[in-house]
Amino acid sequence: MLFLYILFGVYLAAVNLYAFLLVKERKKRVTERGEEEKNTNARLLLAGFLGGALAAYAAMFVYKYKTDNVLMMILLPLLGAANIYLAFALVKSGFLFFA
Q1: Surface-to-core class of residue 21, CB atoms within 10 Å of its CB (0-12 exposed, 13-18 middle, 19+ buried)
Q2: Half-sphere exposure (Cβ direction) of 83: Cα atoms closer than 13 Å
Q3: CA-CA distances (angstroms) from residue 89 to 36, 37, 69?
Q4: Hey, which of 16, 29, 49, 59 has its CA 20 to 30 A from 81?
Q5: pLDDT at 44
Q6: pTM
Q7: Residue 69: which of 37, 41, 28, 39 has the closest Cα?
Q8: pLDDT, tens digit only, all 99 positions of the chain
């Protein structure tokens, strides 16, 4: 039972770290080489959907990452709220007990 909570916490930490580092790497590529990758927005949204939306959104402010994609600036906070809600719902409902 405790193992599942620890595993869930490690999963969330790993996804959030991946999302944070993804924004950092993209900002580094844009400032150094001027390269723009089109598929990184999809990677960021996927990482946000899997649980790393808050870290990706926070990294955008930490690294002063600017994007022209308005959809990302709307979806990441919404996905972050949904991630928090789902995490609390999973823990409170006891779903992790029976997994």
Answers
A1: middle
A2: 26
A3: 38, 35, 31
A4: 29
A5: 87
A6: 0.82
A7: 41
A8: 778 788 888 999 999 999 999 989 888 888 887 766 666 788 888 998 999 999 988 998 898 887 777 888 889 899 999 999 988 888 888 766 554
Parse the chain into domains and list their residue ranges.
2-94
- By residue count, the chain amounts to 99
* Contacts of range 4-10, beta carbons closer than 8 Å, 24 or more positions apart: 4/96, 4/97, 4/99, 5/91, 5/96, 8/87, 8/90, 8/91, 8/96
- 59, 23 contact by CB (below 8 A): yes
Tokens of 59: 């990294």
Place of tokens 């990184």: 40
